[in-house]
Amino acid sequence: MQLKSLRLLMGVAETGSFVATAQRLHTVQSNVTAHIKKLEDELGVQLVNRSGHVRLTTAGMALAEYAERMLSAHDEAVSLFKGDKVAGSRLRIGAMETTTALRLPPILAAFHGAYPEVDLQLQTGPTASLVERLTEGLVDCVFVAGRLDHPHYHLEKVFSEELVLVSSTPMLAMPSTEELLTATFLAFRQGCSYRQRIELLLAYCGVSAARIFDLGSLDAMLGCVAAGMGYTVLPRTTVEAHQHRFGIHCLVLPAPIAQVDTYFAAAQPATWTPALARFVDTLRQVAASDTCRSESGGG
Amino acid sequence: MQLKSLRLLMGVAETGSFVATAQRLHTVQSNVTAHIKKLEDELGVQLVNRSGHVRLTTAGMALAEYAERMLSAHDEAVSLFKGDKVAGSRLRIGAMETTTALRLPPILAAFHGAYPEVDLQLQTGPTASLVERLTEGLVDCVFVAGRLDHPHYHLEKVFSEELVLVSSTPMLAMPSTEELLTATFLAFRQGCSYRQRIELLLAYCGVSAARIFDLGSLDAMLGCVAAGMGYTVLPRTTVEAHQHRFGIHCLVLPAPIAQVDTYFAAAQPATWTPALARFVDTLRQVAASDTCRSESGGG
DNA sequence: ACCCCTTGATCACATAACAAGATAGCTTAC
DNA sequence: GTAAGCTATCTTGTTATGTGATCAAGGGGT
């Protein structure tokens, strides 16, 4: 059984004529006859009544119901890949907590505004877990810190954060080792890459352990820091954006520690669904405008 | 896009191997490659990730959902015509009121007992209306009185009733014309063919008009006749079956009026769905056993 | 009642699509 | 490093498909 035959059958059902069906579906009448005949031979049932006016038989109508299902599924599938519509698509995005909180909202908003039909699913987790989910096909794309070691993956640097040390008091240089040993650090919850950076910073300063508090929200973190509760490490642009609301000061960290690149990772572009391709388009646009804004705003 | 290709794609999705898929679906590996490749070219998307272990890409999984729908619809359709299952079938039967009341119950019961999955739909109406519905494809088969004049239809005589005149008092001959003129006749509701027979009978006896009451049920009719309310005309076997419950007597009518043949009409057998074919089987069996019983019982 | 027009079936032929086998290139595991 | 297993590619013979021409049948109009 071929989809082409079913389409011709539906044509016959609708037009009640082999000739008209042939014209409508851009072929010739003998072709319609042949296809219908082949269907009939295959199923061992007469599908079309040719005596008098052409009309589907009971069996033909029964088959037509299934043909309808098959063809509509086919058309949906084709339009999903070839058409401009992304309706019915699903897009599963994996991202780190910090990325989700700090970078994704405008991107998701822009994408959802442009393609509201896409079923967006967001999963958060640490980089290692995200990569695993990507390789297992549980998500379609991920935002992760640092380059993926996996080959055969499409990688794209989308965000480049410059981390700064945030405190309630002005700083000219890194706090002393003694200060750091007794200080409290505020971070997003476990698994966050910024938190790892804090630990990296502490190690860099010769401090092996410090108190690190988990806070769920950016506002909470900045508020606590402003209240003198401790330090935190955040992207410079984020801090600058909220600096007018909190009495906080920041210190540029050494480059190797400060620099945090967030990569967008997915399978090769050739494997992308249109929905994913559109998402990447949106992502690039938003990321580009973000860069402009932060560059002009930060200058 | 071809169903065959989709089936191979599903095979690859399940086995994770082109070779295994080829074996499972009784073809060769190069065929699987070719089909998948053609699908990919057609949709402009890579569906299978061949680097490392073979696995569907995001796009492949998206297509697989639609493939699932198409293939299951296809399989259902095929099994409807080729398999032994009639699940999901619909059977629309048209029948006259009297046939529905007197003959169909055992047939429908037998059929429904044997094929409970079939969605049975029964429509009642007079012969002309039924024939119209059959030609319009609104029902799959009908039980009608008398031969269909329409050609190209499958006709089968299934019931042959011998009508008798029923009264509360014993009769040796037809009532007199005077008696008939004042008498009341009881019949099923308008459109019933037995009612037409009553009118035919009256015309035969030279009576142009008589009072005819519509009663909805057989029991009501026989009860009223037994109470001396009037006459009715019913099949001999029906009357004999109920004779022990009512004090009624019957008179054999002249052959041309007494003989009422009920025909089963449907499109040509070649156009029958399996459900319809099974119904005809059941119908013949029940009709045959009915004949035996009535013959032995009536002798 | 006749003729004409339209419709679907059939046939022959050219082309395209397909399945199968052999081989080459690549990856993975030992 | 080698061997085994996998997929891509190529070739070939066969099948399937699309097309146009022709034939038979039915319906409508005169």
Report what the structure shows.
Two copies of one chain form a homodimer. The first copy, chain A, is α/β, with parallel strands linked by helices and 299 residues long. Chain A folds into three domains: 3-79, Winged helix-like DNA-binding domain superfamily/Winged helix DNA-binding domain (Arc Repressor Mutant, subunit A, Orthogonal Bundle); 90-144 and 268-298, D-Maltodextrin-Binding Protein, domain 2, CATH 3.40.190; 160-259, Periplasmic binding protein-like II (D-Maltodextrin-Binding Protein, domain 2). Chain A is 49% helix and 20% strand. Chain A has helices at 3-15, 18-24, 29-43, 58-81, 97-102, 104-114, 127-135, 177-182, 193-204, 218-226, 236-242, 255-258, 274-298; strands at residues 48-49, 55-56, 90-95, 119-124, 141-145, 154-167, 184-187, 211-214, 231-235, 249-252, 259-266. In chain A, strands 3, 4, 5, 6, 7, 8, 9, 10 and 11 form a nine-stranded mixed β-sheet that branches. In chain A, strands 1-2 form a two-stranded antiparallel ribbon. Chain A is rod-shaped and about 100 Å long. The relative contact order of chain A is 0.13. Chains A and B meet through strand 2 and helix 4 of A and strand 2 and helix 4 of B. Chain A binds a DNA duplex (30 and 30 nucleotides) through helix 3.
The gist of it:
The structure is a homodimer of 299-residue chains. The first copy, chain A, is of the alpha/beta class. The first copy, chain A, is 49% helix and 20% strand.
